[in-house]
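This part of the workshop introduces the protein records we will be handling. Getting from the letters to the C-alpha cells is the skill we practise here. The record below serves as our worked example for the rest of this section.

…
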Amino acid sequence: MHIYPVILSGGSGTRLWPMSRETFPKQFLPLLGGRSPFQATLGRLNGFDGLQSPLIVTNEEHRFLVLDQLKAAGVTPRSLYLEPFGRNTAPAAAVAAISLISDDPDAIMLVLPADHDIPDEADFRHAVMAGAAAAQAQQLVVFGVEARWPETGYGYIERGEPLAPHADCYRVASFVEKPEIEIARRFLASGRHYWNSGIFLFSAARFISELRRLQPDVEALCQDAAGKLAEDHGCCRIDTAAFSQCRSISIDYAVLEHTDTAAVVPCTFRWSDIGCWNAVWDRADKDAQSNVMDGDVHASGVSNSFIHSTHRMVVAIGIDNAIIVETPDALLVAGRDHSQQVREAVKQLQLQGRPECRFHRTVHRPWGSYEDVNAGERFRVKRITVNPGAKLSLQLHHHRAEHWVVVSGTARVTRGEEVMLLSENQSTYIPLGVRHRLENPGKIPLQIIEIQSGAYLAEDDIVRIEDAYHRV
C-alpha cells in the first residue's frame, strides 16, 4: 500500500486579516514558532513508513511562495498543481486523484489542508495508520477531532457503529455544518460528536468513483482538466477553460455527506484550523496575564489579549479580551469573542475595492520583494530588494518612466542596449518605453529606491520580454 499526501494550499485566510491577504495568505505566514502552517504540514509527514512524496495543489499566484517554502523545508514534491482560481477542495483533490490513478491504480490519498495546526505529530501519525486499513478496504475515511468546547465555527461528525474489522474506525452517522450554540453544547455532551478536521484518507479510485456517481458534472470537468494539464517548468497548470466551468464544492458536500462508505477515526490530538485570531491566541504561549504579545508592544493593565505589531510601537492600557494587529497599512482592533467577524469586515472592504485586502505594502516576488513607500498623483516610490544572484524580468512600460537609486549592494542595469554596474549612491533613469532589467550580481541583497512617474502606475503596466522565472 502506497499513501500519497495531497496538500491543498489554495485558501485565502480572510479571518486572519490584516496579516493574511490574498497574495500572501495565512498558510504561508510564520504563525507556528517561526514556521508557516504549510511548512508544519510538510513536517508532520516525517516518520511515516512508506509515505510517498507529497502532491501540492495551490493557486498559480502562490507558486513561488510554495516553491520557496518547499526549498526551505528541504522537500521535493511529487507534483505541484497550479489552479487558475479556487474551486474548493473537491475539484482540487479530484484532479490530483485522477493523475495519481494513471500512475498507481491502488493509490491511497491522504488529503491535508495546508493551514492547520497539529502539535501532536506522533498522535497524528497513529491516527492515520489506524485509518489506513479501512481506506484500503474502500472506505472514505475522515478524521474527527475530540471537541474541546462548543464551537459553532466548525462542522461536526457523529460517530456510528464500529466498523469491523477495523479497530478505531466507525461508520459516520451524520454530518452537521456549523451548528447553533445550543446544538453545539449538546454535541459536546453526547460523546459521539467530533469536530470535522477536513483531513481525509481514501483510495483515489474510490473517491473518483463516488464523485462520478454523486456529482457527475464535477467529475467530468475534473477529468477534462486533468487530461489537459500543461507542464510549466516543473509545475502542472490546470486547464482554465475546464476548471472555470466546475462548481465550487467541498469534499464533504460533494461526496462524504452522501456516500454510504464514510468512516470516521476519532482523534485525541490537539488540532486547530487557525481560523481566526482567537485560535492563534489559544495556540500561543501566554504571559502571566494570559496575553500574547509580539513586536514593539507596551502594555499596562492588559489581560487575555493578543497584540501584534509589525511596524509601529503599540501601547495598550486597561483592556481585556482584545485582538490588536498592526501592519504598515492597516490596524485591526476587535474583541476576541468577535474574531470570526473579521471575514465579514474584509468582504465589505473588498466590495469597496480596497487594495489592503489583496496586497501587503511589502510584496514578495521570486527575485526578492518591493515595498511601497509613498504614492500620489503621477508618482509612486518603492524600495526594491533583489536577492543575491537574482534578476527581474527584461521588461518595458508603456505609461511610466523610472529613476533608480542604489541604497546598498551592486546593481547590474540593462537599459536599452547599454549594460552598466551601479554601486551605492549611484543612480540611473529609465525612460518610458525603453527595455530594461535590474540584476544583483553580488553576494549581499541589493536595495534600490525606485521613483516612478507617469499617467498610469499600476503593476499591470509591465511588458515582460524575457524572464528567468517563466512569467512571460
Remarks:
- The mean pLDDT is 96.
- DSSP finds eleven helices and 28 strands in the chain.
- The two ends are 41 Å apart (CA to CA).
- The longest strand covers residues 193-203.
